[in-house]
């Protein structure tokens, strides 16, 4: 990863001098261990909800006042091809927001793949700012930022993907140049974390959408895990269930398995956030012997007493964070739509 620290080094002839005042460029090259299908699936952004989800997974603030106009949508023949226009307002996180106010972005987006003469598959993702025909004279109008970003993905024989990522932004503001470079480099580094998270989330969304089709495959697994309908599917602890008819917050949305509220329980469940449709998967359940279950019951009672007396060593937030992590649960082929479970 490297950055061009001078405006002339990041300049390309396609720019217009009256629109690009101080372009800064950052280039990142690396390898991600995944297939090209998974890579293109992770960057596919067909709407506002997917755009906000992407911001959350990239560890940045979600866009506001978003609009999206699709031009070309994915089809069965071209499942990863998409072209569209998007407009949103982006606000930097604190303390950068003190120096840089909200910025408006109007971008043309394109994602797809091509096949070379040698039969090699190459994927791409491009973002480019749409220039205005006339500048708004009102001084109170929101500032509009210019950006060009290109990502190229080369599928390798070993199953990995080589990634070339270059971004150019017009960064004429009060933020020091070194800090601008650091922010852009952090954004490129976040992409390596974003890809596996996005792939997992979208596959889980597919599983929930086709839950009725998968119910026959999930029933043997869930029935083997839930021996007693009154006990927790994760630890086997018998505890009262909520009497409401609505789906419980401790109920898995994928297999309807019920789990207790103990943060130390080795649970496995899928929960979906309301705003971004962002799903998290908890740890897989482990087998417990009869003696271990008795210890779990005793520790469960002791833990409840400690929480009641405010003498617990862990806060609820710490318990929640310790009990959850990202783990892949399902794999499916985008083209063949074939499901396969793995640990």
Count of DSSP helices? 7
Enumerate the spans where pLDDT stays under 50 for 5 or more consecutive residues. 272-289, 296-343
Largest sheet: 8 strands, antiparallel
Percent range of helical residues? 25-40%
Q: What class do helices, strands and sheet pairing give?
A: alpha+beta
Count of individual domains: 2
CATH class categorisation of the largest domain: Alpha Beta
SSE string: EEHHEEHEEEEHHEEHHEE
In one word, what is the shape?
globular
Beta strand count: 12
Strand order of the largest sheet: 1-2-8-7-6-5-4-3
Region (Disordered): 284-318
InterPro entries: Rab4/Rab5_effector
Biased composition (Basic and acidic residues): 289-301
Structure description:
The structure is a single chain. The protein has helices spanning about 35-45, 50-55, 95-100, 175-210, 210-225, 290-310, 315-325; strands at about 1-5, 25-30, 65-70, 80-90, 105-115, 120-130, 145-155, 160-170, 270, 280, 330, 340. By secondary structure, the protein is of the alpha+beta class. The chain has two domains: about 1-210, Alpha-D-Glucose-1,6-Bisphosphate, Chain A, domain 4 (2-Layer Sandwich); about 210-340, no CATH class. The strands form three sheets. The protein has an eight-stranded antiparallel sheet with strand order 1-2-8-7-6-5-4-3, covered by helices on one side. A hairpin with a 6-residue loop joins strand 9 and strand 10 (about 280). The two termini are about 35 Å apart. The model is unreliable at about 270-290 and about 295-343 (pLDDT under 50). InterPro entries: Rab4/Rab5_effector.
């Amino acid at each position: 990863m490297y950055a061009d620290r001078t405006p002339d080094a990041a300049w390309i002839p396609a720019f217009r001098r009256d629109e690009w005042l101080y372009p800064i460029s950052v280039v990142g090259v690396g390898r991600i261990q995944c297939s090209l299908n998974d890579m293109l699936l992770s960057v596919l952004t067909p709407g506002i909800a997917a755009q906000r989800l992407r911001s959350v997974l990239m560890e940045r603030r979600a866009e506001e006042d978003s609009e999206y106009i699709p031009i070309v949508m994915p089809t069965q023949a071209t499942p990863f091809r998409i072209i569209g226009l998007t407009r949103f307002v982006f606000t930097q996180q604190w303390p950068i927001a003190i120096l840089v106010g909200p910025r408006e972005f109007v971008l043309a987006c394109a994602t797809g793949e091509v096949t070379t003469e040698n039969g090699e598959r190459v994927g791409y993702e491009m973002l480019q700012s749409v220039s205005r025909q006339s500048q708004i004279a009102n001084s109170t109008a929101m500032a509009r930022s210019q950006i060009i970003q290109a990502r190229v993905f080369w599928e390798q024989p070993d199953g990995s993907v080589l990634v070339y990522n270059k971004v150019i932004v017009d960064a004429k503001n009060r933020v020091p140049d070194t800090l601008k470079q650091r922010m852009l480099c952090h954004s490129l580094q976040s992409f390596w974390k974003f890809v596996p998270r996005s792939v997992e989330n979208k596959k889980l969304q597919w599983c929930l959408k086709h839950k009725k089709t998968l119910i026959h495959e999930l029933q043997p697994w869930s029935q083997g895990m839930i021996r007693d309908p009154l006990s927790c599917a994760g630890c086997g602890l018998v505890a009262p269930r909520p009497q409401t008819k609505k789906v419980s917050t401790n109920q898995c949305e994928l297999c309807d398995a019920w789990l207790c509220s103990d943060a130390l329980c080795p649970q496995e469940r899928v929960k979906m956030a309301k705003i971004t449709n962002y799903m998290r998967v908890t740890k897989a359940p482990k087998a417990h012997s009869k003696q271990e279950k008795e210890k779990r019951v005793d520790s469960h009672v002791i833990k409840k007493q400690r929480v009641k007396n405010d003498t617990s060593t862990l806060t609820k937030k710490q318990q929640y964070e310790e009990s959850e992590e990202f783990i892949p649960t399902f794999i499916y082929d985008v083209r063949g739509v074939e499901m396969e479970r793995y640990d």
